[in-house]
Amino acid sequence: MADQLSISAERRTEFGKGAARRVRRADKIPAVLYGHGTDPLHLTLPGHATMMALKLTNAVLSLDVEGEQHLALAKDVQRDPIKRTIEHVDLVIVRKGEKVVVDVAVHVEGQAGPDTLVTTDYTEVSVETDFTKIPESFVVSVEGLQAGSQILAGDIELPEDVTLVTDPEALLVNVTQAISEEALEAELAEAESEAGIEHEEPEAAAAEGEEPAAEGEAPAEEA
């Protein structure tokens, strides 16, 4: 379930890419807080403390904004695609007793039956719950499942007061028959054979002293 993590924040009065870069150089993170019809509040968050807090998915932050107290859910975390450092955070205001819709990760565990292949179509599902009761993740087991078995979103065991928002018929995990080594080798051999046939004609033409006509060009007439 979601923990409330205390963070001290400052109001941000400078905007734009240049201002955001200056904030990050100071080991801080630009953020915006919105929700419940209030005007967006632009903030600066402490870099290390925020990074540690947001290691938890769907983290709920208890913000102290220069003496004002706010409860907020981390709705969107933008990261540098290479360094993976946090570049910006969108926070939505939550209030006690309020329900929220969030995405929760689905983890697959166990070993399916012999000669099977397990594929995962969805790695998370959407649920509605009180913001203080957000599950950290859901676990589904494929232990012993045979080819043809499927796990749907509706098969997840939900805690009390947690409602599934994702379509219950959404396919999470599919267990199929694994291709045998012999069948795989046969497919590779067939593919190699077809590739060889495609290159045979130009090679044969070159052997006879002729150049294959370029695509879309008519063959030259004999003198």
Q: What order do the helices and strands come in, and which of them pair?
A:
Blueprint: E1 4-11, H1 17-25, E2 28-35, E3 38-46, H2 47-53, E4 60-65, E5 68-79, E6 86-93, E7 99-109, E8 116-120, E9 124-130, E10 137-141, E11 150-152, E12 163-164, E13 171-177, H3 181-207
Parallel strand pairs: 1-4, 2-6, 7-10
Antiparallel strand pairs: 1-3, 2-3, 4-5, 5-6, 7-9, 8-13, 9-12, 11-13
Can you walk me through this structure?
By secondary structure, the chain is α+β, with helices and mostly antiparallel strands. It has two domains: 4-94, Ribosomal Protein L25, Chain P (Beta Barrel), CATH 2.40.240; 101-177, Beta Complex (RNA Polymerase Alpha Subunit, Chain A, domain 2). Helices cover 19% and strands 41% of the residues. The termini are far apart. The mean pLDDT is 82.
Structural class: alpha+beta
Question: Over the alpha carbons, how many angstroms does the gyration radius reach?
Answer: 28 Å
Give the tally of structural domains: 2
Class of the largest domain, according to the CATH hierarchy? Mainly Beta
Q: Figure out the total of helices.
A: 3
From the coordinates shown, what is the CATH architecture of the largest domain?
Answer: Beta Barrel
- The termini sit apart by 86 Å
Q: Label the overall shape.
A: elongated
| Mean pLDDT value | 82
* CATH homologous group name of the largest domain: Ribosomal Protein L25, Chain P
What are the low-pLDDT stretches, counting only 5+ consecutive residues below 50? none
Q: Strand tally, please?
A: 13
Which percent range fits the helix content?
A: 10-25%
